[in-house]
Amino acid sequence: MKTSDKLLDQYSGYYDEDSLSSKRALAASQTVEHILRIGPKHVENLLDVGAGEGAVLSELWRIDYARSLHAAEISDSGIAAIEKRRIPNLRSVQHFDGYHINASDDYYEFGTAIHVLEHVEHERAFLNEIARVCRTFYIEVPLELTLRLGNTLVASGRYGHINFYNPITFRNLLETSGLEVVSFRVFSNSLDYERYVSGRFKGAIKFAIRGGLLFMLPKYAPLFMTYLAGVVVRRKRT
User: Fold this and answer.
1) 179-187 and 108-114 beta bridge pairing
2) Which of 4 and 141 is assigned the larger pLDDT?
3) Residue 116 near residue 89, CB atoms below 8 Å
4) Total tally of structural domains belonging to the chain
5) Is residue 193 part of a domain?
6) What are phi and psi of 84, to 5 degrees?
7) Residue 238's pLDDT band (boundaries 50, 70, 90)?
């Protein structure tokens, strides 16, 4: 099994431009906060699968989250950007074909796959490979399967999203992939992120509405607005 040539071409130069670096840094900051809220507070070694240009790895290093960091990335431009960061405790960066990680079973204590699954053609094969090499891992995806999916398909298609989730379909994917859900939570974007995307005033309003709706109607809020799902999983024990 391999990633299609079409997707490989799409992501080959995905991180050549720095125009989105501030947005990615804000997204990485809120993601690491999510990990700390539902995952372990510190690990010995960590593999970031689909590490992009290294924003999450950089934030994990900043808070001293893991003794050693490792990256697997499909994009040549992403690998170049990661190496350019010179993260002090980054021990390895490997080219990832999408479905095969060069590591023995249970080699890594913890893994992360941040906003990757929505891009993956064969989701279960991808998840099974991470579960093979990581004893526990954290996945984060946007919950874009809302009542406004038609608009989402247009907006997210530009970024290569081919899979769309709500809390029920996402959990079902995990459980039918042979994974045990250790913790699951729906998050809103941070205030800083909302303001960066929508402007100071409009972003603050969107932050308040999104957060308020999730607080009052946690079961139904993802039907109306896009949120983030964060989950810690591991292989089901037999």
Assistant:
1) unpaired
2) 141
3) no
4) 1
5) no
6) -65, -25
7) low
Domain that holds residue 79: 5-188+227-233
What would the two tokens of residue 50 be? 């689909």
The average pLDDT across 69-85 equals 95
Specify the CATH number for the domain of residue 121.
3.40.50.150
**What's the predicted TM-score (pTM) here?**
0.91
Other beta carbons within 10 angstroms of residue 39's beta carbon come to: 20
Decide if 199 is inside a domain: no
